[in-house]
Amino acid sequence: MKKRELAALIDVSFTLNRGERIAIVGESGAGKSILGFSIVNLISKPGYIESGSIKLENKELTTMNLRQLQEIRGKRIAMIFQDPMMTLNPVLTIGNQLVETIRSHTNISYKDARNIAIEKLHNVQISSPEKRFDQYPHELSGGMRQRVIIAAVLLLNPDIIIADEPTTALDVTIQAEILQLLLSICRDNGVALILISHDLGVVSKVAERTLVMYAGHIVEEGPTLEIINDPQHPYTQGLLNALPQMTIPGQRLNQIQGSMPSLAERPTGCAFHPRCPYATQKCKQEQPQFIYSGVSSVACFMIEDMLNEFADTDKEVL
Amino acid sequence: MLIFLLRRLLQACFVMIIISLISFSIQDKLGDPVQQMVAMTVSPEERNQLRNELGLNDGFLIQYWRFAKGAIQGDLGTSYYYKEPALDVILEKLPATLELAFCAILIVILIATPCGVMAAIKPKHILSRLLMVTSSIGLSVPIFIVAILMVYIFSIELNIAPSFGRGQTTEVLGLWESGLFNKNGLSHLLLPSLSLAIALMPIFVRLIRAEMMDVLQSEYIRFAWSKGLSARRIYFIHALKNTMLPVITVGGIQAGTLVAYTILTETIFQWPGMGFLFMDSVSRVDTPLVSAYLIVVGGIFVITNTFVDLIYGLFNPTVRLASHGL
């Protein structure tokens, strides 16, 4: 890497099975969104993928040229963005923005494409889809627009949907509706989902598996329920403790002391050590490796030591 | 829509009244029209008699009132030099100026748009950098230098295009004399319209580039990429339409600059249009013609901006709704 460049993601590795729903959680700045965008190579400039490999059914995505990527984008891997107010082009009609997606990937007539678009709008429970088809984005509410975006994403029956905080910009009542819609659509069509979120409540309802990220690293990975019931990594524990539900009403909310380091000031060793209540000298110097804790895979020396101790006592007993 | 136009009309009247007041109040500062009209030998008494006939000895308000009464009926006074209604003299020259302006605008749109887009899409490309440098130079070089340079290169050195006049004209539908429909007229149009275009071009190239770069950063463009659309569709449908919104507005305001530049261009190329006529009238102290010109130009400015607002509505759906509601 050249001087003055910063790495946003380091040693991040995971697999996504067909039809599986996974979540990526972490604080702002952990690298969640960058991870989502790099999958289809849509990182904002001047960012770029320095090294590594991203494969879709053994096809390498990182080395594809623009034309090859365009065939994947929208058709195999589609994306839902955070703010529905900003995601649709204000000067083009809803219909126009739906039909163009279909027509740029397949050779079908405008009329057929229109029928597909209206059917998908119907699927996402938009009332009078024929009328919405000719409307402009500003004529729709935020929740409606997010539905339109989900419809747009479904147009070509993709294998994977990457949803980057799809409910963050919506108000709470609509959040639940959109989440339910997203979940049922993924379930019914066997679409795999990568949900990027900082909201563990959202994640627990949707994702089967969860990856916890901190400062460009994955720190813990495992089944969502297990992670929520029995978090292993001190950072995951901190995140869960910070949920308002974890505090007795009337008391101060829990928080993790300190804040996420910026990319330029990433600490040595385990990046979480300055904020970790269990940090030792070793944590400051070495990078922990992933180990299976019995609940989830976790990168933490404390867990490693504990597991080793158990193994030793087991031996002694034997 | 109708109410919008009516409101514009009202605004236009207001603007015209102010323009006419200003142009009227500078009249007697230009010099004495009588001195230009009569020979040296005419006695002071006779001069004074002529002044009385022309109403030049009356007070400012009386003169203005007389003028305003006529103006409402479409009579902007009689030119001292041509001895014809000032409005007729100007309208006769209007087609020449409009053709010149139209060609210049056409050249600006056809060249500035692709240049601006190119500079925005590939900001590091050598051509884009060259374009930016050239446009900086273009912004700072005055139009008369550009025009004189063009005459020197294309007329004198290369002898490709004529350097003055309008050349042959043909009558179009019995409405006006046009130079657009024959080769000779077009060749005469080449240098003036090109100079005028060059004067206006840099600001548009820079504006389109800046706006386009801004738009390309937006979320909806990123979403368009994530849908797998072709680069051409993203640049020219998704981005360009949004880019043009502020450009159209600035375009309307630049209409004023355009009129100012036509005066210079027409003078240099001896183009028989309104601007050239205006310069002549000023030196002849033909005050009715000068005021009439200012009022006509004010009218053109208001009409252009109304037109621009209507076009803006075509590009921006949110505005279209608002104008229905009003």
UniProtKB/TrEMBL annotation, chain A:
It is a peripheral membrane protein. One of its GO terms (cellular component) is plasma membrane. Its EC number is 7.4.2.9. Keywords: ATP-binding, Cell membrane, Membrane, Nucleotide-binding, Transport. One of its GO terms (biological process) is peptide transport. InterPro entries: AAA+_ATPase, ABC_Ni/Peptide_Import, ABC_transporter-like_ATP-bd, ABC_transporter-like_CS, Oligopep_ABC_C, P-loop_NTPase. Residues 1-240 form the ABC transporter domain. It holds the Pfam family oligo_HPY. Signal peptide: none annotated. One of its GO terms (molecular function) is ATP hydrolysis activity. It is found in: Cell inner membrane. It catalyses: a dipeptide(out) + ATP + H2O = a dipeptide(in) + ADP + phosphate + H(+). CDD domains: ABC_NikE_OppD_transporters. Belongs to the ABC transporter superfamily. This is ABC-type dipeptide transporter.
Automatic annotation (TrEMBL), chain B:
This is Peptide/nickel transport system permease protein. Signal peptide: none annotated. Residues 94-312 form the ABC transmembrane type-1 domain. One of its GO terms (cellular component) is plasma membrane. Belongs to the binding-protein-dependent transport system permease family. It holds the Pfam family BPD_transp_1. InterPro entries: BPD_transp_1_N, MetI-like, MetI-like_sf. GO terms for biological process: transmembrane transport. It is a multi-pass membrane protein. The chain crosses the membrane at residues 9-27, 98-121, 130-154, 189-208, 243-264, 290-315. Keywords: Cell membrane, Membrane, Transmembrane, Transmembrane helix, Transport. CDD domains: TM_PBP2 (cd06261). It is found in: Cell membrane. It comes from the Bacteria.
